[in-house]
Amino acid sequence: MKLTILVDNHTLIDEYYLGEPGVSYYIEDGENRVLFDTGYSEVLLSNARRAGIHLEDLTHIVLSHGHNDHTNGLRFLQENIDLSGVMLCAHPHCFLPKYDGEEFIGAPYNSAEIERITRYTPTSGVRHLSERLIFLGEIPRENDFEACPTIGRTIVDGCVAADTLRDDSALVYQNGEGIFIMTGCSHSGICNIVDYAQKVCGEERILGVLGGFHLLEDSPQLDGTIAHLKANRIDAVYPCHCVSLLAKTKMMAALPVQEVGVGMVIEIDP
């Protein structure tokens, strides 16, 4: 597997890409070309061109959840590329309306619209995109230290409700050496995601964890997360997007934390 970071909050020294508060990873897995999240704007397209990546070759789009910093790039992608043959994998709640106060923070399309644009398959369960690449679906929330708070509100079956982000999910790549976990924001809790990935894959060894962990403040949740990840002896931890400098600094004291930025490439043996 070859993963290229196309959208993140940060860029790297002497790598002249654009950054924005969002996430998008381009994944090459055999013949599959998978885009995990789409960022917020046309930055995705600009960075892909600079990296020499042809998004016209996409076979799959996977969305971690429905917030606009992960889905709004779909609009710019659709305006420039024919997505009618691209399989789109996301939780059924991903395309529900989402609001923070009066501000709309959801995806640019609803389910009916995205079904016309792509080959959309809503799934709340585990789905294999290939022999080695797995979409986890809805994540069980079982530990006692990850808060998993509601964010704004959504509309389910015509009723307004607090948004528990049931649509928050992750991708896993599995080879003979272990698993590599990719997240968007980890609203369901990065440790819950790790535990579920191990259960689904029947594999305890973790080669790496990449993504936003939604850790911003010094808190019991941050301490619990560090302890949990340390106990799992993860080879490499790549916190990005919605992880504060404070949280990264504290994690670095206990974990093999790696820098993340747009244009960075991670390769995992098949």
From TrEMBL:
Gene3D superfamilies: Ribonuclease Z/Hydroxyacylglutathione hydrolase-like. SUPFAM superfamilies: Metallo-hydrolase/oxidoreductase. InterPro entries: DHPS-like_MBL-fold, Metallo-B-lactamas, Metallo-beta-lactamase_dom, RibonucZ/Hydroxyglut_hydro. GO terms for molecular function: transferase activity. Signal peptide: none annotated. It holds the Pfam family Lactamase_B. Residues 21-84 form the Metallo-beta-lactamase domain. PANTHER family: 7,8-DIHYDROPTERIN-6-METHYL-4-(BETA-D-RIBOFURANOSYL)-AMINOBENZENE-5'-PHOSPHATE SYNTHASE, METALLO-BETA-LACTAMASE SUPERFAMILY PROTEIN. This is 7,8-dihydropterin-6-yl-methyl-4-(Beta-D-ribofuranosyl)aminobenzene 5'-phosphate synthase. It comes from Eubacterium barkeri.
